[in-house]
Amino acid sequence: MTITAPPRPEAAPTPPTRPSALRRTGGFLLRQWRRLTAMRTAIILLFLLALAAIPGSLLPQRSLSQSTVRQYFTDHPTLAPVLDRLHLFDVFGSPWFAAVYLLLFVSLIGCVLPRAVEHARALRTAAPPAPRRLTRLPDSAELPTTLPAADALDAVEEELRVRRYRVVRRDRALPSSAGSSGTMAELSAEKGALKETGNLVFHLALVGLLLALAGGKLWGYEGSILVTEGQRFCNSFQQYDTHSSGALVEGSDLTPICIGLGDFRAEYEEDLTASSFTADITYGPPGEEGRPTTIGVNDPLRVDGDRVYVTGHGFSPTFTVTLPDGTSFDDVSSPFLPTDQRTMASEGALKLPDLGAGTDQQLALQGFFAPTGLTQGGILTSIDPRPLAPQAAVVAYQGYLGLDSGLPQSVYSLDPSQIERGRLSEVARGNLSVGESLTLPDGTTVTLSGYKEFAALQFSHDPGQVWVLAAAIAVLAGLLGMLLLRRERVFARAAGRPGDGGTVLEVGALTRGSGDGAPRFAALTDDLRTALAARAATRAPSGAASPTGGPPE
Fold first, then answer.
1. Of 152, 305, 427, 549, which has the maximum CB count within 10 A?
2. Whether the model pTM is above 0.70
3. 3-state SS string over 51-94?
């Protein structure tokens, strides 16, 4: 009688363990980090950064010229506010440009630093062993010789070292065959490691370039001001018309220097386009007279990391105001901003808040200045940017200017709210040539006495400019190394030739990079044949046959 045991119940399958939320989050972040630090992502971000910089070259930027931006708003009143909301007049300070910039910076660091560590390790590592079958390499050849294997490899090593290869000799164990085993001598050589070094230098220099640009933005500052001939300004935020500074800049960090404008000259072509702007200036510490020099649009003043550029010019008409009691204010002026760069037609205002004791009336002149004026139908226009016949159309206002109200207002125009409230009243208007006068109802006379030219100067301090130059040179050097150098490896193996006791030298080469390696490999094998024959000839005894099979010498 056979007793069978009841079947054992099968164990229930263990349900898969679901990873914890923390582990899933860590894996997701790791995958995103690897995507961000991939070279493909860095290239895409670099392309996006180049695209983001295009509006900065096509549209006027506030950091370079406020007057040009104002002119763009005048010419495109509908489009300009939309572009301004997108920060397209301040591209390089916009949030979206900074986002692309920072992502590129992080991507390059995460991509390049591990590769740099790996490359440094590879430079200390010997060339890899020769593959088992050299005939599978793109370039290979067999060179028979009567030399022993060691001497044949000596000839190969000598030729490769002349060509600046790193050479390593090895002995490889032969597999057991028919009860016998042994070793085979082989050689590995490589050069062109500087190609990868150039690649890393290029990317590290690109990181350095980004750092230098960021440092220049953090510790740099700029200021723009209109300076009339004969005037002087010092490097202070309070004196600039517009200024911008990095987050780490304080007022005490500004360079103590003052700039004075002596004379400004503008030259024009026959078609009335400007050919050159030059300004004679003086510069030096406050309290000193200053040293003279001449600057131009493409020839700025450079002093210890500071630069002073000429970014524009215009005219400041001068007026002589004579009060009824005989008090005279001579050659008072204010810059009139150009509204048409082709003819330099300009608009501006001159405010005279204090006309002397005994009067509570303030005077303001709002007008239009034409360097070469032409009146048509009572309307003054300008037909030439050169000051051939300067004229001014003036509207005189008297009343309260509101300068002490605490509310900011432009120095180049009157406050329209004061006119709307009736606190400023128009009292006279007229077109004036140089020497002509306009008489106000109270007996005050306003005379156009002449004009002066002003220069739009930009003071720029960028502590990162030297580092930017060095990084740009390193970028170029690394790029040349990437493009011009080649990574090459050469392998050689010497084995005994059965039958006559000679040696078969197998040579193979692998080339990575630009160009075809076949001509260089052919030149190497030709030189090896010559070297092997020369060595064999020196080893051959007197009266013996030559290695090439010719008659004995």
1. 152
2. no
3. HHHHHHHHCCCCCCCHHHHHHHHHHCCCHHHHHHHCCCCCHHHC
